[in-house]
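Predict the assembly for these two chains.
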Amino acid sequence: MNKKILFYSVILLFGLIAPFLFPAFKLQMSILWILIVLSLTWDVQGGQMGYNTFGNILFFGLGMYLCSSIHIGIFFPLSEWTASGGEKTFLHTPKQFFQGFFIGLILSGLIPAIVAALIGYGILGLRGHYFAICTLGLGIAAGEIAGGIELIGAGQGMTSPPWPKGIGDTELRSEFFYFLSFILMIFTFLFLRWAYTKRFGLVLNAIRDNEDKAEAMGIYTMRYKITGWVVSAFFVGIAGGLMGNMIGYIEPVETAFAGRTFGVFMVLMAILGGKGTLWGPVIGAAAFHIFKEGFWTFFLGWQYVALGALIVIVVVFFPEGIMGWLREKYPEKFGEVIDEDDRKAQVELK
Amino acid sequence: MDLLIFEAPILMVQATLDGILLGILFALIAYGMALQWGVMNIINIAQGELVILGGYIAYFMYLYGIHPAYGVIISPIIMYFIGWGLYKTIIYRVVDRDLFISILATFGISILTQQLMNFIFGSDVVVAQSNFGTTFLFNYMVTLPNSKIFAAGVSIIFAIFVIIYMKKSKLGRAIRATAQNARAAKILGVDTEKVYAATFGINAALCGVAGSLIAITFTLHPYVGLPYTVRSFMIVIIAGLGNLPGVAISGMGLGVFEEFADYILGTEFRVGAVFLLLVLILVYRRFKLSRKREYLK
């Protein structure tokens, strides 16, 4: 127990002092925290529940657009803001900025959660690959439709509000977003860690293992499936809202409903780390982020080739991920008791 | 929103004819998908990329001075070997595994192919001019490019050819036997590995035909593959596996739907409408089945 507390506090300490130790990597580390949130929440469906979704990117983009639209919309006319493109004709005062931002951030969590609850009843009734393809279609449809709406800048996208003048420089801005994403990550992790120990986590695993049997046992599986999706949508929405403000620019297909980047990343990270485990998505996200940054920097232009190859390799050869590999190697650490005689007998049989 | 189509009903004729001709092409791609889905139980997300790749072969013939219409002969031959190679390197590892693994693996192939095509062929929108001229109907009110009629005709010929091949030839019989029961076919001496490779190759070849027809009639771009995948998936699930007339009809229906969506909602929502239709169809079927306490799986 003491070891665990030590471990968590080391991570917490690292997260708190890291932006001051490595100021050049602040943005990268904020993106890492966001990626961890994405892969953790994907794992609620993909790993724990066995519903492989490609559609969580829908909530990411929704949160991104909502946060910035509300942020701008409650003080200025939104259509004029997007029509003026990159030129800032309006400027938030610091007070307006923070008020608008936090209202936007909260709503960018709540509205995707409501959307998930509404569409969940229809879509979570599908199973297997129908569910996967349906959610894939949902994410892409959202991107295409967002690219046609004039109010939010259509295909050109919109800029999120710039940091207000008079309260510090860009350093303070990146620290602000760094700590917000760090807090979001910690909160998501702790929430899921708590939820998995409850009945909720057990039911999700039961659904993954055999949904028909779970239903026959008298569990309202649909209720739990929708709850799981709502939880994912809430955190992913907030992550999207943060991300939109952090990079300062929202484009319908490339950043918001980015099926080709974040939409695939979250699946890949969870599988890379080992789906269905608590720590797997975290480890997978960290490993993937390092890999991605390396490739994006040194092999610019080839990054999607590398990404495609990585997906094929991970999925075909290592579908169990890093955690699965560790579990195979050190089963004692995972609380699995091995009967030595039984193991020997099996080896002899082979 | 532009409701010109209701003010000038002749546009409905135009949209319907365009849609049917387009839909026949979709049906050809969907036929390839149904074949390989039925035989190998794999959903190939890279289907659209195979189509675009086949289109680029025709486009390259056009660049080197050969008429792109010959692409419908050359492209399937090349694509057959590409499909065969793809099976031998990657697909055979995922055939009898969880369906999601095959979806994700082909998704990876799709991303990889997109980017490679972007490197090799450039990211411009290209079109291979066929110079087939245009047919006018109803006193010049409806225009139909001859290339579209040509495309639809060639698709029908190829589809009929493949159907007859499946019925009559030895390989066709082996493929159908494997689709019915792979294990029993294996026991009776069918080399299922070979059958799978051939099926994937035939699928790729059909994609090659469709792609080279798309190169003449529409435009090519490295990143437009996914809509073709989704369309063919949608056609297959509407028609059901192994229902060939259904594939043809639902393909045409989808084509007509798209053309009308184009006129009514505007071109910018066209692809969005296709993807949304997929979601709606799946959800509709889910509710219909749930009355019988069944589900799509």
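Chain A touches chain B through 41 residues (CB under 8 Å). The beta strands of chain A are 158-159, 249-250.
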